[in-house]
Amino acid sequence: MAKLVKVAEAKDLAPGQGKLVEVDGQPIALFNVNGAFHAVGAVCPHEGGPLEDGELDGDTVICPWHGYEFSLRTGECSTDPDLRAATFVVKTEGTDVFIEVV
Fold first, then answer.
1. What per-residue confidence (pLDDT) applies to 39?
2. Is residue 43 within 8 Å of 37, Cβ to Cβ?
3. Residue 2 pLDDT grade (very low, low, confident, very high; cuts 50, 70, 90)
4. DSSP, residue by residue, 4-64
5. Which residues pair with 50 in a beta bridge?
6. I want to staple 85 with a disulfide (CB 3.0 to 4.6 A). Which of 27, 40, 58, 64 is the partner?
């Protein structure tokens, strides 16, 4: 059964920023894209780079290590279609930001 885990408050993450959060021991990169929050696995599936430190280009995060690009909505990698970042459902309630985990 899925559960919601509070990981931040909306004020903690300005538009265009990423932040590392942890849910049940799993590192997750949380991003604010123009007020909409998205979450992907924090470890780049290419070579382990820190996606939370990546640059945003719309709803795409670019890994700071090798420039691999991942959709924050689907996890698909435009650089290498064989790679995919895990994605997580993000919900906001008032000013609280939650990630849904199974």
1. 98
2. no
3. confident
4. EEEEEEGGGS-TT-EEEEEETTEEEEEEEETTEEEEEESB-TTT--BGGGSEEETTEEE-T
5. 43
6. 40
